Hints:
The protein is of the alpha/beta class. It has a domain at 31-274: Rossmann fold (3-Layer(aba) Sandwich). It is 26% helix and 23% strand. It is built from nine helices and 14 strands. The protein has helices at residues 37-44, 79-93, 114-121, 123-128, 192-199, 223-235, 260-273, 297-308, 344-350, and strands at residues 2-8, 11-17, 65-69, 100-104, 130-133, 142-146, 152-155, 163-169, 172-173, 177-178, 239-246, 249-256, 281-287, 311-320. The strands form five sheets. The protein has a six-stranded mixed beta sheet, sandwiched between helices. Strands 1-2 form a two-stranded antiparallel sheet. A two-stranded antiparallel ribbon has the order 6-7. The longest helix is centred in the first third of the chain and has 15 residues, at 79-93. Residues 330-353 have low confidence and may be disordered.
Amino acid sequence: MERVCMRYGDGEVSFPLPGGRKVTTLSAKPFPPIDDLPAAFHRAITDECVDSPPLSALLTAGDSVTLVISDITRFWMRQDMIVRLLMDLFERIGIPDERVTILVAVGTHRKQSEEEMRRIVSPDVYRRVRVMNHDCDAEDLAYVGTTRRGTRVAVNPLVLGRKVIVIGGTVHHLMSGFGGGRKSIVPGVSARATVYQNHLHALDPHAARSNPAIGMGVLEGNPLNEDMLEAAAFVNPAFGINLVVRDGQYLALCCGHWRSAWEKSCRIVHAAFGVPIAEQSDIVIASCGGFPRDIDLYQGTKSLLNASQAVKPGGTLLFLAECREGGGRGRSLYRRPPGVPPSAVARALAKPA
C-alpha cells in the first residue's frame, strides 16, 4: 500500500492510499541548488547583472538606502540570508547603518510583529538598522502618477528620493502571472486605494468572472501585470534582487534592472516549476507545502488553484492547509467594515486626475 507524506503547517500529514490503481506525483523538475550562496550572490550583483551596472557602482557612502522586502507569508524565500549579504556590501562601501531602512512590503496584509520582523531580516540586522512595516492607510503616502489604466499610484515616502533595492521571490501567480519583482511596489508599498484599483483588473469588465487575460505564467497582455509594471516605473527602483527558491534552497539569483532581472527570473521559474499535466485525475491531493504558504486561506488558495488544474470535471480535490490565521487579511481589500470611512489617502486618490 502506497503511503503519502505532505507538509502541513510546521509539520507533516502522512496517510495511506489504499486501492489506488494509478498514483502519479507531480514534482518540480530537477534543478541544482546553489552550493555557495555568498559567491553566487557576488557574481549576481557584479558580472552577471541584467541590464544594470554592478550594484556597488550604483551606491556611494553618502546614499540613503531603502531595502524593500516581503513579509512573513513569503519567508520561504529566506531573504534574511540576502539581507545579511547586502549589509556586508554596504559596510564595504561605507554606508552607515543609520542610512539604511528596511521596509516590509506588507501591501494590505496585517503588520508584522517585532518577532516576525526580527525573523525575516535576521536578529543581527534587526539590531543594526531600522525595520518598518508599510502602512497602506498612512496619511503621508505620496502620489507619484496615474497609469494609463487609471490606477492612481501613491506609495510609501521611503521609496522616494532614496536608493531603493527591491528583494523578492519569484513564483507563479494566479492573477499577475508571476509574483515578485514589481509587486514589491504595487501592492507591496502602495496605498490601499492603489491596490484596490490595480487588482480590479483581475476582473472581466464585461462579465461577472475573472478577466480571461490573467492567469498563472501569463505576462503579455495581462492587464494586472502591465498596470503593476507601469506603477513600479514611477518609483523606478535602483536595483532588483530576484530569488528562485525551492524547499529553502536557492536555485538562482537574478539581479540588476528591476524589470529585466525579474523577467529573467520568471523564465527560470517557468522552466523549473512549470510542470505539464499529461492527464487530469479523478482524485487530486494537494498541499501548500507547509508554513508560511498555508498561513491562511487567502495564501493557500494559490496552491488550491494550481491543484484544480489537475482534477477532472466532477472529480475530487483534497486540499491540505493549516490556515493558522484563518481566512487571512487579503479579503479586507474588497470589504470595508460598515461605519468605517475611507482613509484620507483613499479620498485623495478617488479625486479626478
